[in-house]
Design brief:
Blueprint (H helix, E strand, L loop, with lengths): L4 E2 L2 H6 L3 E5 L5 E4 L25 E3 L2 E4 L5 E12 L3 E5 L9 E2 L2 E4 L9 E3 L1 E11 L13 E3 L16 H13 L3 H13 L1 E8 L10 E3 L6 E7 L7 E5 L3 H4 L3 H6 L5 E5 H8 L5 E3 L7 E3 L1 H25 L1
Parallel strand pairs: 16-18
Antiparallel strand pairs: 1-19, 2-15, 3-14, 3-17, 4-6, 4-12, 5-6, 6-11, 7-8, 7-12, 9-10, 9-11, 13-15, 13-17, 15-16, 18-19
């Protein structure tokens, strides 16, 4: 299925909780498990009362400027969103917009923006969002993600990784991966991201109170692996875009309600994954995506080419 493969639901049910001791080439990694992973909030919508807004993502698939100002944006809401909610747009360049207000919502059965049923909230449904403060549709490029999740794309003490942009892309992956622009953006985001990875620390490694763990070269870290979705002889590394994804890893939490997690870059994840059978993003969520070793090598080459272009541009400015 396209460049990346959707992680099979069958594999999730048959996944093994195994631990592999492997080295990673890093002098310092960030500890993510400053707090216990919690269940993602679930809210059922009703027509009688306004539901509570939940964490949501909304990938921009279409956008139209309105005659009286503002834009209307089409896509799928994953979660619950109310009229008047404050949101932001995370762009494909991984930059963020100013805070925006959702001025109105319409339910869409088809993709005819401006012709849907006006509602006060939406839960897990295709919708059109009107935002009057955006005057030009180019300010919210196609495949931006509208969300109320404040991105935390780099780790910091007591600040776990939270990547709503990659989360938003994975939720629309099965439908859009055949689109070359989407596929290129997806690949760029995969190798530009930092991931949350549950680990087993060697007894000699002592987490510090400020959330930064120093790991000496040659130290061993145990990685929890799952069954490969296509090859029974291989395992894959589960990685997550946020702690909510970790909270869905029931087999892990049953053994350790406060799992230790590390923030690892794509290069660090790849180093472990290539010794096995790849990695899977949000394995236990609604839209897991499997990244094979072949996919990893392709993404690494794309990253190397981009890094080389950036370096050349910097050298030319000197």
């Amino acid at each position: 299925m396209g460049f990346f493969d959707k992680f099979s639901k069958k594999n999730k049910a048959e996944s093994e909780d195994t631990t592999a001791q492997q080295e990673i080439k890093t002098e310092e990694v960030k500890e993510e498990a400053a707090q216990p992973a919690e269940e993602a909030e679930k809210t059922e919508s009703t027509t009688e009362e306004k539901p509570k807004t939940t964490r949501f993502t909304f990938l921009v698939e279409s956008i139209k400027e309105l005659e009286k100002g503002g834009v209307i944006i089409g896509g799928n809401v994953h979660g619950t969103l109310n009229v008047g909610d404050k949101v932001l747009a995370v762009h494909p360049s991984l930059t963020e917009s100013d805070i925006l207000t959702v001025d109105s919502i319409e339910l869409l059965e088809q993709d005819e923006l401006g012709k849907g049923e006006s509602v006060s909230f939406v839960t897990d449904h295709r919708a059109g969002l009107t935002i009057k403060s955006v005057s030009n549709k180019n300010n919210v490029p196609k495949y931006s993600v509208i969300t109320n999740i404040l991105p935390q794309l780099t780790p910091g003490p007591k600040k776990p990784i939270d990547n709503p942009y990659l989360l938003g892309l994975t939720r629309e992956y099965p439908k859009l991966i055949s689109d070359k622009i989407f596929a290129d953006i997806f690949t760029f985001t995969v190798f530009s991201s930092v991931y949350i990875v549950p680990v087993k620390l060697d007894e000699s490694i002592k987490p510090s109170e400020n959330g930064v763990t120093h790991i000496d070269k040659g130290s061993k870290i145990g990685f929890i692996l799952l069954n490969h979705p296509q090859d029974a002889d291989l395992k894959v590394l589960p990685v997550f875009t946020d702690m909510g994804g970790v909270s869905e890893f029931k087999a892990l939490l049953a053994k350790d309600p406060n799992p230790v997690c590390m923030a690892l870059t794509f290069d660090q994840v790849s180093e472990v994954a290539l010794k096995n059978g790849g990695f899977v993003i949000n394995a236990f969520g609604k839209a897991p995506v499997f990244v094979s070793n072949q996919n990893i090598e392709f993404a690494k080459k794309m990253k190397e080419q981009m890094d080389a272009r950036i370096k050349a541009m910097k050298d030319n400015k000197k």
